[in-house]
Amino acid sequence: MASVPLSVDRPRPEWFATFLADRGSRKPSAHTLAAYCRDFDGIAEFIVGGAEVASLRLADITLDSLRTAFAVFAESHAPASIRRCWSTWNTVCTFLYTAELIAANPMPMIGRPRTGKTLAKSLPPNAIEALIGALAAEEPSTRRSDWIERDRVIILTALLAGLRREELVGANIGDIRPTDTGAIIQVRGKGNKDRRVPIEAPLIEALQQYLSSRAIRLPRPAGRRSAPGAQFASWPATAPLFVGADGERITRGTLQYRVLRAFRRAGIDAERARGALVHGLRHTFATELANAEVSVYMLMRLLGHESMATSQRYITAAGTETREAAARNPLYQIVKPPVDVEY
């Protein structure tokens, strides 16, 4: 069956619009709302059998119809996509059941792929050194899209402050707040939950260098000019921190591409987990703190995790890396195992 292009405005059942309105009260991102629509369409299209998804009735939502639809959906989708789609439909059916629109939520009776217990993968020290070294050695380019100071500070902010991709995109200049001992970044995280991440002199200086280059590259209107080296206060607090070549807030795609380009230039693209760009830098931030024996509670606060169990994964990963490093000690090749002695 041909897939219908995704559109948040595509006609859907009225009760699904009510569900989206209910979720909207929680202030989800536009990306999250689009994901709800995509996952809904992915299953609804199989249930209605080629008709418009707007024709899906509440009476059509049964254990058998959902089980069949998910079985077909699973044939062409990865386990992670199936789990996400299952979660969306579980949320939808829970809403419908709570609103007394269906007799029960059938989703718990529908199987889904298990989540693998994989540890977060951080970049090894030699890869980080190569990445920073490549950024420092990069020569000025005549291409307008190349911007050394900006790309360098994007990577440093992800690496030294642990920001997510969406947090980097959404950051404003006013979120950088100088303190007596350095500065903090006021981060708007998942679920609109704010956190404060302290930053030190190297990152502050990189941010200032970037803003100085920005004032030269993108001159501001008269009365709002910033001389090279100007402090954060000389910029409008609501101005986007990271911008593209056009001076507008940087897009998610541009941000990811600039990080990917830096990985490739440093020759460390093979060191990252598949699909992990900004998130790979965030993993490295977390694992390095865990290696430094930062408490799981403090790690939770710095990363903006809702669950301490999520932060604990980095503690576990750090312990595994430490053990693997110790096991490579060449002295183990010299020491012979003890000989059993009978008494």
Reported CATH architecture of the largest domain: Orthogonal Bundle
The strand count comes to 3
CATH superfamily of the largest domain: Intergrase catalytic core
Helix-strand makeup class: mainly alpha
Mean pLDDT: 82
SSE order:
HHHHHHHEEEHHHHH
Low-confidence stretches: 1-6, 225-230
Query: What can be said about the biggest beta sheet?
Result: 3 strands, antiparallel
What Rg do the Cα atoms give?
25 Å
Give the neighbour order of strands across the main sheet: 1-2-3
The CATH class assignment of the largest domain is: Mainly Alpha
Oligomer: single chain
Number of helices: 12
Integer tally of domains: 2
Which topology of the largest domain does CATH recognise?
Answer: hpI Integrase, Chain A
Distance between the termini: 75 Å
Q: What general outline do the C-alpha atoms trace?
A: elongated
Provide the β-strand percentage band: under 5%
Helix content: 40-55%
